[in-house]
Amino acid sequence: MTPELMIKACSFYTGHLVKTRFCTWRDVARANENVALAEKMNRAVTCYNFRLQKSVFHHWHSYMEDQKEKLKNTLLRIQQIIYCHKLSIILTKWRNTARLKSKKKEHELILKHELQLKKWKNRLILNRAAAEESSFPEQSSSEGSLVDETLKCDISLLPERAILQIFFYLSLKDVIICGQVNHAWMLMTQLNSLWNAIDFSTVKNVIPDKYILSTLQRWRLNVLRLNFRGCLLRPKTFRSVSHCRNLQELNVSDCPTFTDESMRHISEGCPGVLYLNLSNTTITNRTMRLLPRHFHNLQNLSLAYCRRFTDKGLQYLNLGNGCHKLIYLDLSGCTQISVQGFRYIANSCTGITHLTINDMPTLMDNCVKALVEKCSRITSLVFTGAPHISDCTFKALSTCKLRKIRFEGNKRVTDASFKYIDKNYPNLSHIYMADCKGITDSSLRSLSPLRQLTVLNLANCVRIGDMGLKQFLDGPASIRIRELNLSNCVQLSDASVIKLSERCPNLNYLSLRNCDHLTAQGIGYIVNIFSLVSIDLSGTDISNEGLNILSRHKKLKELSVSECYRITDVGIQITDSAMEMLSAKCHYLHILDISGCVLLTDQILEDLQIGCKQLRILKMQYCTNISKKAAQRMSSKVQQQEYNSNDPPRWFGYDREGNPLTELDNVTPSKGASELTVEKSTYSSEEQVA
């Protein structure tokens, strides 16, 4: 063997050995790699499965939570339904019980009244018998017992506070008459508190100046309020007012003899006056000079229809301490005041909150602008009879915090005034815009955001329709509205009444006079306004059926159906079977106006006496079939009554028999027409509305 072969053999052996080892290592490495890859794959599958399980579990958990929440809400809703159902059952039982108790109480009250009436009749018979027997000497003891019984009813034995409450309801004339009954009654009429307020206007035609002088002299330290409205007195009588040092309120309106000299004496003697009414007197600039000099605390001042003072007099209001505490000012009818005069008022009376300017055809936008430049506290504004006021006035008033505005008979006020009313006047509560022809549905849409609005008067605004009222009622303003006057808004129909019944839960007073598009269907929805106490349906198409529906309303106290010629006796009769008729249901009716109902007869008065025992005011104008004799009998049952049997005016649209008029008809009053007006007591405007 040669060395080359040896080397070649060794090289071959070595190469074969390396190749064998390498192949073995490669196989082992590949096997290890496959194991590692398989292990990694197993871990990857395990991780993927874990993530998948986690995701599925998460979705399942969310689903279960949603199901639990839905179940919880469902259970809560079921509990609420059960609770509401229980409340409904309880309320139904309570209502039924209350109705039974109410009927029982009413029945007991009727029995009680019948028993009292029977006792009263028996007592009357006994008194008559005792009076007849008292003429015999041997029966004097029975007379003494009657006297003792009378003394037990003497009101002088009541506490002083109760006596004052009784005498406060009497007029000055009645108090004087009571003082002449006997000594005890005279002492009651001389209580000091009874003479804090003296109203001479009620006896201006019967009381002499001499008595007024003596009264003021006697009660000069107690008098706080004096009313001489319309009294024709001597200057000496007015001067005697100066002795009332504690006087706070003085009303001398419509007194033709009241002069600057009278005002001078009063201002020197009564510096504490807070309220002063000088309306329709002959005062001049001399009186205007006295006001800031003596009445430093004056708060209310009325200069209405005083046309003898000038702008110079208004300039005097800033003299001395001035009238800086004035909060109420009435300048109605003072047509002599110019723009400069209003500037003087603004300079001296910056605290005015209530301003009234009626019957002022010379009032212009510039006058209001000059006033509000410094009087930014105005909250109440009344402009009636000011035809030249326009939208510019509303723009100028944007600096004031108005709560009440009243415009009437103005054609220059348009929808532009109400465009930003919710931003400029968010606290408006009373709006009177009667007979303003420029107001349309757009204005009502602008009023809808007013949350404080309680009174809205849009009478004679003929361009207002159902759409505008719907947009108004859809806003928050409908929630608190209490009074709504839509008289002569002839475009309104049943849709408006339906919306009112849905959106006005607090409505008390509603007027739909002469809204002739209303039908029986719309009137039927009025009973759903449960808070309603007064409704005016005069001049509408209401019939007996509609009146029958209205009789279901339990709280209705005032109903006006004048000029409703479709109402007959059948619509207002009372029978045992017709329990839903007007008189049978409306036991608390206080005011009733049936003027122009020409088909009503005397029977209606008998029915009202039976069913409406609380009726106080009854108006029966142009009731041709109601006799004067029956009206006189009815007058003793009510406190105020207006009656005549004249033929209805031509503009009513029908004759004395209820037949529609044609253009050729010539209606003349009947020969037997009669008129009767009975009034037993005087009511304030607020009481008449209530």
Automatic annotation (TrEMBL):
Residue ranges constituting the F-box domain according to the UniProt record: 152-198
Compositionally skewed regions (Polar residues) per UniProt: 635-647, 679-690
GO biological process: SCF-dependent proteasomal ubiquitin-dependent protein catabolic process
Stretches for region Disordered: 635-690
Keywords: Leucine-rich repeat, Ubl conjugation pathway
Pfam families assigned: DUF7885, F-box-like
UniProt key word Kinase: no
Gene Ontology, cellular component aspect: SCF ubiquitin ligase complex
The protein's name in its UniProt record: F-box and leucine rich repeat protein 13
Species for this entry: Piliocolobus tephrosceles (Ugandan red Colobus)
Gene designation: FBXL13
